[in-house]
Amino acid sequence: MTQHLLSVRQRYARLLSVMKWVGTVAGIGGALIIAMNIGVVAHGFMLFLVSSVLWGLVAWAQREVSLLVMQGAATVINMLGIIKWLGV
Q1: Strand ranges inside the chain, DSSP E
Q2: Burial of residue 52 (number of CB atoms within 10 Å: 0-12, 13-18, 19+)
Q3: Are 71 and 52 spatial neighbours (Cβ–Cβ below 8 Å)?
Q4: Domain tally, the chain
Q5: Which domain does 82 fall in, by range?
Q6: Rounded to the nearest 10 degrees, how much is the dihedral formed by the CA atoms of 77, 79, 84, 88?
């Protein structure tokens, strides 16, 4: 039983780590796309949205209220950016 619980905890920790890294890479990619001003700004905001959602989930899982609030705001801002640039 203890071995099984350890395995579940290890998988949970690994999942959080993957979410953090994917969120980080997506955020960097989004910033790079927008900074390069190559005409695909909406794609940059989509990557920012992926980043903010993943980091929001990590914040929720780790009970980091300030990070959760920031990522919630970032999610709304990124959706506004997508709407603006795609003309939806």
Answers
A1: none
A2: buried
A3: yes
A4: 1
A5: 2-86
A6: -160
Cβ neighbors of 34 (< 8 A, separation 6 or more) are 41, 44, 45
CA dist., res. 53 & res. 23, Å (int): 8
> What is the DSSP-derived secondary structure letter of residue 62?
T
List the chain pLDDT tens, one digit each, 88 residues: 567 767 888 999 999 999 999 999 999 999 999 999 999 999 999 999 999 999 999 999 999 999 999 999 999 999 999 999 998 7
Here the tokens at position 85 are 């640039």
